[in-house]
Amino acid sequence: MTYRVGIGKADITGPCVEVGFFGMSNIGQQGEGLHTRLFARAFLLADESDSRLAIVVVDLGACSQAVKLEVVRRLAGEGEFRVGGRPLYTDENVMITATHTHSGPGGYSSYFAYNASIPGFNRRNFECIVSGIVESIRRAHSGMEPTRVYAARGRLPDCGGNRSEKAYLNNPPEELARYGENVDRDMDLLKFVAVSGRPLGAVNWCAVHPTSMGEKNRLISGDNKGIAAMFFEREHAGLVGAFANSCCGDQSPNMKFGERPDGVHDVERALEIGSLQYREAARLFQDAAREIQGPISCRLDYVDMSGYPDSASRMTWPAAMGYGMLNGSREDSEGMKVRKWGEGTTKSNFREDFDLTLEIVKGFLAPLIGIHWPHPSDIPAGYEAGHAEKPIVFHLGLAKFRGVPLAPSVLPVQMFKIGPLVIAGHPGELTTMAGRRLRETVRLAFGPQAPDPIILAAYANAYSSYTTTREEYAMQHYEGASTLFGPRTLEAYQREHGKLARAIRDDVPVACATSPPEIAEGRLLRGPERGIPDGLVPGLSLGFGSVESDIRRSYRRGESASATLLGGYPNNDLRTGSSYLAVERKDGAVWKAVFDDHDISTYFRWHPRGLASMITIDWLIPLNQPPGTYRIRYNGSYWIGYPREMRPIESVSGEFRVVD
Q1: How many CA atoms are closer than 13 Å to the CA of 138, on its beta-carbon side?
Q2: Whole-structure pTM over 0.85, yes or no?
Q3: Residue 252 annotated to the active site
Q4: Could you point out which of 106, 271, 420, 589 has its C-alpha 20 to 30 Å from the C-alpha of 114?
Q5: How many Cα atoms occupy the beta-carbon half-sphere of 355 within 13 Å?
């Protein structure tokens, strides 16, 4: 049996300056440039009956529900994606899953909690992401062809360890003994080969936290998974390779190095962790021989996690975060630096105390911008007890901004079956053991014909922070304190995934009892977006494109060639599908581009000087770079006058030699 498969890739790199990054929740981590671009990679499959699905892997911190719903809406409205009046790609058969890089611009959620540190909703970034995802699907759809699909499973070498081992070890001893390792090292890969024998690409899932680039980083980056994908696509020219994530909630690559990212060695360590993932994926791609055959099935359900029912009572409660999350995960970030309460703060050891930072955030800034914290009379009976060991610091499900809760409660649970394998989409972060229990639930629900493999695609279709086991939750480490809906959150998700598995097994539909709310953009906190023309440098006779600090005449391999010039405000022109820069090598009388801004050797940095934008481009010359004559090119745009008029800028540095 063959499938019809299409694979597409599109740029989703948003504004690279003056927009906060999603992931570390550090309002000071505002973009100052670009290291590597971000992409959407789409894989479309259709079986012999034309049942189809779309797996889209995006270089984002998470896929927000707003992004997923808008992508589906646009797909349904375009004629090329409709047959016989019905849409080919729907909420049920489109899964958008994020790599979880912490170095991408945020502001694309409908919920305040996930836009707060950006700060606010950023329409430009949202549009860039949505249109890029739709474009990746369009390119995949237009290129669908008969294809064979192969699966392979491998094991990652040391890509880090469990950052909350004490919480992990609180799981039952017999369960711990069953697995041995405290992180999930499996990599599952799907390889796509046209019936003509031409390889098309691959997608894999493995649990590695993209936190090699830490909160001191200010340049957009796909982090270790983006680097892995870059290596794969450059070593397999013309192919698309996606590195999706799985249950990495309590995994950290920084455990390998014994310290959180320091802002100095981040790229080096991202390169090491990315290389490990790439090499295993390349091996699996070479060796994959197990052909996947069988029909495609898709199911999706929406579940209200603010009050998941359990016979006569309830299993979950409106969202809340505990004091144990205030200082981040320690191994990856510093959080709010509220030292009075750290990881492991439970009701039994919690002590009320005054903290100026927390009081400013909760008592001054939040009310100032319009957040309404719940009055004691608004708190449901049993709410505090329902969150068990968690002393609540933020009532995200009860507090509101313009009538909208600060975090989502109606969330999607999704499952795909492709022949003998299953992909389960989870709207958030799963710890290692939580993922193992979820897989076991799916396996048991299918019965004797259990699928293999069962792949967990995390950060899928929406984001709702963490999901831990009940035992991990009791410890209230960062992950447990960030498990929003109480100690039985995982149990509720297990029931939902079990329901989807049985529906696929029995070939019956799933009737959604609820649906996510439509949240108008006017109800969101809008982030600041610059709306003034570019300026020149006061006191200097520099025109746009003028080089202020040029490169030297020669460099050795391993040195950094650098040029600074007067450019345009980078957010004027995102250079989508293009590049802000090129490193060019002279070949006879012709200059040929050898690197652009999607390469780990180039760095694009923005430095404001009044209303002027000074641009520095650095090229860290690879150790294997051929000697020759080179130059650096800048491409940008500047805004002049009203009405808004954009004019292009092209600038080149002086020529320089790369010598042995």
Answers
A1: 16
A2: yes
A3: yes
A4: 271
A5: 16
Express as a percent the part of the chain with pLDDT over 90.
85
> Which residues 6+ apart lie within 8 Å of 87 measured at CB?
75, 76, 81
Q: Considering the candidates 252, 297, 333, 409, report the single residue annotated as catalytic.
A: 252
The answer to whether residues 89 and 54 touch, using CB atoms and an 8 Å cutoff, is yes
Q: At what angle do helices 65-77 and 123-142 cross, to 10 degrees?
A: 50
- 158: Cα separation from own chain's centroid: 22
Judge contact between 201 and 190, C-beta under 8 A: no
Name 190's Cβ contacts closer than 8 Å, sequence gap at least 6: 43, 149, 150, 151, 202, 203, 204, 292
Reported confidence tier of residue 347, pLDDT bands at 50, 70, 90: very high
Per residue in 357-391, pLDDT (tens digit) is 888 888 888 888 999 999 999 999 999 999 999 99
* Domains and their CATH numbers in the chain: 3-292 (no CATH), 303-406 (no CATH), 547-659 (2.60.40.2300)
Residue type, 204: N
Q: What whole-number distance in Å separates Cα of residue 401 and Cα of residue 407?
A: 10
The answer to whether the bond into 643 is cis (omega within 30° of 0) is: yes
| pLDDT (mean) for 577-590 | 97
**Tens digit of each residue's pLDDT (9 = 90 or more) over 591-614:** 999 999 999 999 999 999 888 999
